[in-house]
Amino acid sequence: MAACAGNDNPQRQRLQGLPPVLDLRSRLIVLGSFPGVASLAAQQYYAHPRNQFWPLLGALWGLDLRALPYEQRLQQLRERGLALWDVYAACRREGSLDSAIEDAELNDLASLQQRAPQLQAVAHNGGESARCMRITRSLGLPVHRLPSTSPANASWSFERKLAAWREVFARCGLL
Q: Looking at the annotation, which residues are catalytic?
């Protein structure tokens, strides 16, 4: 079992992540680390009400994505060439903080280009995800590190995050 995160506490419950959101039109994939408690409970990416993922995308695309049902949000992503997944398929963790991730198991990142043949770039959402950049760089695609959309990343303002995300989305033709 390969992982980018360390530690191992077998007493914590093993958590399973969410399936990828991608299709043949996907040109950019945003990789998080592992879904937080709210996302796992809802079985939805970025479900925590203070996570800025959906508001950032809404600002980039001029849409109120939070007003849409989750499946329609995912449809907007697919239509615009954006894919979502996490670097970890499973782990042990208490709470939602990346720093608490233990015994992490990687998703099959090597299969990304087979699953999404139009894929042009990879973007890591935050530092824990970016710890796996050596793996995603092996795909031979441009790899970007984006500031985390997590509410724990309070040192970056929404506007600063938006500018960084806008730059990567523009490079990848998703604006």
A: 51
